[in-house]
TrEMBL record:
Protein species of origin: Halarchaeum nitratireducens
Cofactor entry: thiamine diphosphate
Protein name, as recorded: 2-oxoisovalerate dehydrogenase subunit beta
Location of the Transketolase-like pyrimidine-binding domain: 3-178
Keywords annotated in UniProt: Oxidoreductase, Thiamine pyrophosphate
GO molecular function list: oxidoreductase activity
Biological process (GO), any one: sulfur compound biosynthetic process
One Pfam assignment: Transketolase_C
UniProt xrefs under SMART domains: Transket_pyr
Length: 321
């Protein structure tokens, strides 16, 4: 199947709902409208109102309801319309879903997925463009997954639905429909917690994920260096080994992410490199990130997130020492 990222989401949901009657989909406008990005299009017609449900505009109810359903054996996939709408449900994630296994000493788990489009680049309004994966990666017991390709989207969403614990599945909406690739049909799973080396290289390691991967790929292709490109795919649990092994080979590293610089996932990547590969470094690790501001609206957002020239400049700085 030749598919975009949003089509891969839809295919994964169709496949898992057909295979397991415990899988439910609910959220704002997911049923009759098929979702604001049409990610859930066709599910209502195929699986009916009992398994595909339009909810009120209440994120705390959506995540709280998913937690309760998961505790009693269902596998809910809750859609939050935009990731910027998730903070009202933060308490449910922190206080309940993420700690249910620990709280009940394994008697109950919360096998649930909260999926949502994230990031800037589509000229959206306030609360529609955030990239807050760093905040959620800090929560013990919550997995955070961000794919960057259609095939990984299907495989990782399948793995998330089958996972025994809660998974935050963040979809890069800026590249929802920007390219297609072949996606396996039927049952297809990509393991959570494993990074992917997209391009092998010898001079510098470039680490990124999600919507920044196409930017990173373009930057890597336009510098005079042999760049090894690592796609984290899973933010928590992070594949530290893949990053460290790459840095041990190249001796230099650049980390790229869309979210704010302070407290971003890039800081954690740098810390892990320093912990486990410090003596292999030929230069300080560079970070190319969003700024410590709110995401500006409309065309101004183009100045906010890293673009290929900014990323290329970061690579050049790493190589210049």
């Amino acid at each position: 199947m030749n598919a975009t990222i949003v089509e891969a989401v839809n295919d994964a949901l169709h496949t898992e709902m057909a295979a397991d009657e415990r899988v439910l989909v609910f959220g704002e406008d997911v049923a009759r409208s098929g979702g604001v990005f049409r990610a859930t299009e066709g599910l209502l017609e195929e699986f009916g109102h009992d398994r595909v449900v339009d909810t009120p505009l209440s994120e705390i109810a959506i995540i709280g309801g998913a937690t309760g359903l998961a505790m009693y054996g269902y596998r809910p996939v809750a859609e939050i319309q935009f990731s910027g709408f998730l903070p009202p449900a933060f308490d449910q994630l922190v206080s309940n879903a993420s700690r249910m296994r620990w709280r009940t000493r394994g008697e109950f788990t919360a096998s649930m997925v909260a999926r949502m489009p994230y990031g800037a680049g589509v000229r959206a309004l306030e609360h529609h463009s955030e990239s807050m994966e760093g905040s959620y990666a800090h929560i013990p017991g919550l997995k955070v997954v961000i794919p960057s390709t259609p095939s990984d989207t299907k495989g990782l969403l399948t793995a998330a639905i089958r996972d025994p614990d809660p998974v935050l599945f963040m979809e890069p909406k800026r590249i929802y429909r920007s390219f297609r690739e072949e996606v396996p049909e039927g049952d297809y799973e990509v393991p959570i917690g494993e990074a992917a080396v997209r391009e092998e290289g010898e001079d510098v390691t470039l680490v990124s994920w999600g919507s920044m991967m196409p930017m990173a790929e373009e930057a890597a292709a336009n510098v005079d260096a042999d760049v090894e490109l690592v796609d984290l795919r899973t933010i928590s649990p992070m594949d530290t080994e893949a990053v460290v092994e790459s840095v041990k080979k190249t001796g230099r590293a650049v980390v790229v992410h869309e979210g704010p610089r302070t407290g971003g996932v890039g800081s954690d990547v740098v810390a892990r490199i320093n912990d486990e590969a410090l003596m292999y470094l030929e230069a300080p690790v560079e970070r190319v990130t969003g700024f410590d501001t709110q995401v500006p609206m409309l065309s101004m957002e183009d100045f906010y997130f890293p673009n290929p020239p900014r990323i290329a400049a970061g690579i050049e700085r790493a190589l210049s020492v």
